[in-house]
Amino acid sequence: MKKKKLIAGNWKMNGDIALAQTIVDGIKDAADQSNHDVVIAPPFVYLPQVALWAKESKIQLSAQNLAKFDQGAYTGEVSGKMLKDIGCQYVLVGHSERRQYFGETNDVVAEKVEFALKNGLTPILCVGETLEERESDAWKSVIEAQLSSVVQRIGMEAFDRVVVAYEPVWAIGTGKSASAEIANEVHAFIFCTLIGKSDSIRDSLRILYGGSVTADNSAQYMAMSHIDGVLVGGASLKPDVFSQIIRSVE
Ligand code: PEP
């Protein structure tokens, strides 16, 4: 059976309530007509309202982060339990901006994946190398370590549910996307690394590409054998462009 692809939009810390409504209204048709999964990740504060607007559509909801606790005296944090409560199905974990600006290590990311799974959320686990790591040919060991911290903490059964997003740090928000061939090579590496540990996920594991995806290049990624969808940042804030990206997936 062919895997359903996944098209996800990460709004990051952008927009306001008016833009949130414009995006939801603007992508509804494309999402409803798609045979694939369409997911948006608005900022926390807009999630409940967006959940209501998206209710009658096929748009699914993701948060951009979650706490590594379920509840308690953790001022400013939001738990997986709360996200599930308001209708989230997915959560981004370990986005490179979380790793870079908020000190999230591989261990913290693995803990968060555990809390997401425990609360019935599908984690979108972001992995990827910096420019320096790519140029020094360290990308394989970097990505291997990012994956293996999750395997060590939770076991391979985590990957029955985890979606992996390959997001080369040098391609995020820079306009410099990885070529479809380079992305596919890394996706094949991720696929083989995980399949080598558990063949049972061969038909279910989804690996997304993220990094300056636009309506002009999305079809090239989607055509690649190991690319099962895209994680889109900047372009997901433009409903017409995000709709075109959704429609580019056959
Ligand atoms: C992202 O934030 O996950 C991302 C891929 O951003 P952009 O598409 O803007 O590069």
Task: Give a nutshell description of this structure.
The chain is 40% helix and 15% strand.
Overall description:
The protein is α/β, with parallel strands linked by helices. It has one domain: Alpha-Beta Barrel (TIM Barrel), CATH 3.20.20.70. The chain has ten helices and eight strands. Strand 1, helix 1 and strand 2 form a beta-alpha-beta unit. Helix 1 runs parallel beside helix 10 and helix 5 crosses helix 7. It is globular and about 45 Å long. The mean pLDDT is 96.
The termini sit apart by 15 Å
Radius of gyration: 17 Å
Q: Indicate the percent of residues in helices.
A: 40-55%
Order of helices and strands: EHEHEHEHHEHHEHEHEH
Ligand types: phosphoenolpyruvate
> What's the CATH architecture?
Alpha-Beta Barrel
Mean pLDDT: 96
CATH homologous superfamily label: Aldolase class I
How many domains, in number, for the residues?
1
Placed side by side, the strands forming the largest sheet appear as 1-2-3-4-5-6-7-8
Q: Tell me about the largest β-sheet.
A: 8 strands, parallel, barrel
Which class of secondary structure composition applies to the elements?
alpha/beta
Enzyme class: isomerase
Main location: cytoplasm
Keywords: Cytoplasm, Gluconeogenesis, Glycolysis, Isomerase
Protein name: Triosephosphate isomerase
